[in-house]
From TrEMBL:
HAMAP family: AcetylCoA_CT_alpha. It comes from the Bacteria. It catalyses: N(6)-carboxybiotinyl-L-lysyl-[protein] + acetyl-CoA = N(6)-biotinyl-L-lysyl-[protein] + malonyl-CoA. The gene is accA. Residues 31-292 form the CoA carboxyltransferase C-terminal domain. One of its GO terms (molecular function) is acetyl-CoA carboxylase activity. The keyword Glycoprotein does not apply. This is Acetyl-coenzyme A carboxylase carboxyl transferase subunit alpha.
Length: 318
């Protein structure tokens, strides 16, 4: 059964009726094809109307949808001959960060992603996509390895942020994030980052200090979560919808502010409704972004990347 969000309840009711009628037909009942067709048309129009006027808070809910394709899905769907690489060579292997070498459209690449998990067991295993210092040190190691062997870097970001536990702080969380950002900025190879769900705080930037930053239409990217912002400003997490409006965290807002380079359109109803179409769209956009960068040398890439990030805040519409 598909999971529906709160604002999708009218759509859920219509699709529920369609499913009931289909079961009636399958059980040998009367032919209800005409009625099903009418309801499908009505549900499609309602879906169009609903998704044409989404609020930032509703987009945040879609970005966190449990059925949305995760980093592991993009790696499985887009990367051939994937060879996972584990560990930070210092402490442990953090499963919130996945990565390794493979081929994207025939070209050898290094892939890094934050993985949330798909069910309770896998979410616990991957710590809900919230990396500890060893996760960011693994990302740094893979970026440096990519530079050494001339492999373009592709990252897939989907995290609420870095893990905020005491043990993470004790092992140098802030330093690990900073070093990962430094490695991204210093990489002498093309680097394409894609925000596929939630891009939260420094934990997201650690894997997104890239030449080109792509963002899915219903993903979010922000210095803090709406709930965290609301708790700080109003001491009330229930004000999350208000905070989401103020944070300007949607793909549309961030493209206007020149903080991301391109927005990848999602299938109607979100990426989870048609994962295959979403993967195909992301593949095309990554290749279109990567291809022009392949002709540039390492020094040019580093210089342009540095200027790109220094220019943030100077350009765009405020």
């Amino acid at each position: 059964m598909r999971q529906f969000l709160d604002f999708e309840k009218p759509i859920a009711e219509l699709e529920g009726k369609i499913e009931e009628l289909r079961r009636t037909t399958d059980a040998g009942g009367i032919d209800v094809a005409e009625e099903v067709s009418k309801l499908r048309d009505k549900a499609h129009k309602l879906l169009l109307a609903t998704y044409a006027k989404l609020t930032p808070w509703q987009k945040a809910q879609i970005a966190r949808h449990s059925e949305r394709p995760h980093a592991s899905d993009y790696i499985k769907g887009l990367i051939e001959d994937f060879l996972p690489l584990a560990g930070d060579r210092a402490f442990a292997d953090d499963l919130a960060v996945t990565g390794g070498m493979g081929r994207f459209r025939g070209r050898a690449v290094m892939v890094i992603g934050t993985e949330r998990g798909h069910d309770t067991e896998s979410r616990v295993k991957h710590n809900f996509g919230m990396a500890r210092p060893e996760g960011y040190r693994k990302a740094r190691r893979l970026m440096e390895l990519a530079g050494r062997f001339g492999l373009p870097i592709l990252s897939f970001v989907d995290t609420a942020g870095a893990f905020p536990g005491i043990e993470a702080e004790a092992r140098g969380q802030a330093e690990a994030i900073a070093r990962s950002i430094e490695a991204g900025l210093d990489a002498p190879v093309p680097f394409i980052a894609t925000i596929i769900g939630e891009g939260g705080s420094g934990g997201a930037i650690a894997l997104a200090a890239a030449d080109r930053i792509l963002m899915l239409e219903h993903s979010i990217y922000s210095v803090i979560s709406p709930e965290g912002c609301a708790s700080i400003l109003w001491r009330d997490a229930a004000q999350a919808a208000t905070a989401a409006e103020a944070l300007r965290l949607t793909a549309e807002d961030l493209r206007k502010l020149a903080l991301v380079d391109a927005v990848v359109a999602e299938p109607l109803g979100g990426a989870h409704r048609d994962p295959a179409a979403m993967l195909a769209a992301v593949s095309r956009q990554i290749w279109d972004s990567l291809e022009p960068l392949l002709a540039l040398d390492g020094a040019t890439l580093r210089a342009r990347r540095r200027e790109k990030f220094l220019d943030m805040g100077r350009a765009g519409v405020v």
